[in-house]
Amino acid sequence: MKYVVIIGDGMADRPLKELGNKTPLQKAFTPNMDRIAQEGIIGMVRTIPPNFYPGSDVANLSILGYDPLKFYTGRAPLEAASIGVKLNEDDVSFRCNLITLKYDKKHIKAIMEDYSSGHITTEEARELISVINNELGSEDIHFYTGVSYRHLMVWSGGPIDVDCIPPHDILGKDITDYLPVGNKEEVLRKMIFESSAILERHPVNKERIKKGMRPANSIWLWGQGKRPLLPSFKERYSIDGALISAVDLTRGIGINIGFKILDVPNITGYLDTNYLGKAEYSLNALREVDFVYIHVEAPDEAGHSGNYKDKIKAIEDFDSLVVGTVMKGLEEFDEYRVLLLPDHATPIEVRTHTDEPVPFVIYDSRRRMRNDNASFDETILEKEGILNFEEGYKLMDYFIKSN
Questions:
Q1: pTM for the full predicted model
Q2: Are 396 and 65 in contact (CB under 8 A)?
């Protein structure tokens, strides 16, 4: 038996007036996902436990069968594994975004204009993070380059008990009320303010402004945590796995649970990602392993930007190039199961993650269901008699172990 999990990150949404009170998922043309919904086992799952921030870290741990209540320690330590940073027992890692702040004329107040600095390139970011590490790093604090706007700070003996708000949650807002609060808040705040003075004068940002692009004129620190201790996926389910993602977070989860990480050319975590490459590399991997986890970030990024047209386009590309290609390619195998779902919702109207349940479908090549007129979208949540996993981490057990 081959198992494939396909994640459209943040794909679920809420009805929009601009779309005739439909969601982007309902409006998009998705024949491949709709066919799976018509022939598979449909249901709903709560990937975010109560009182947890609705992050992709928590959601993807749940989907992979790991109870966040037992295993979650923070977002940044998962990302550390992806970029090869080994954490010691007393290390605390923070996600370090390169962001764009928009200052008032007196340069006193600042608005969070962009959590991604216009999706800055990794090459540009590497130069900026290097300067930040030289100027703000110390014997106990080090900065590491990740991908695009997503980077890492590791603080030996740093604080866990400090509230740090994700930058994508405060778009268009004055940052004053959202700066770190708690243990050693003054150090974190100082680094954010000092980074702005350093980055504003950097040639990379001067060139970006010259080209009409948003500058990466500050860092933003959040998502802190310590090294996680996760049992391997093979230990739990007795199968080898592989993972494809452009995002350090999901790659880091994969590394921590013993997956082979598949390096696909030109995957970006954005609308221009190599969708087809993800599907083709996944199918090739299934000749060596029995489980592949495919994560596509693009719908989530469109949700954060508040652009429903981009989100529809991302969903349609996901359907045709990833889902369609995978389903066609799986026909070479005798038996296979596919789990398709968003990890969480990223509604256009709020431009951030929310914690409501999301739809899922399990397609089994050995048996076809008949869900006449079903489509893969949020209407699944309204159907009677469907599977309902209030504890999201139990879905993986069902996916692998049920007959």
A1: 0.88
A2: yes
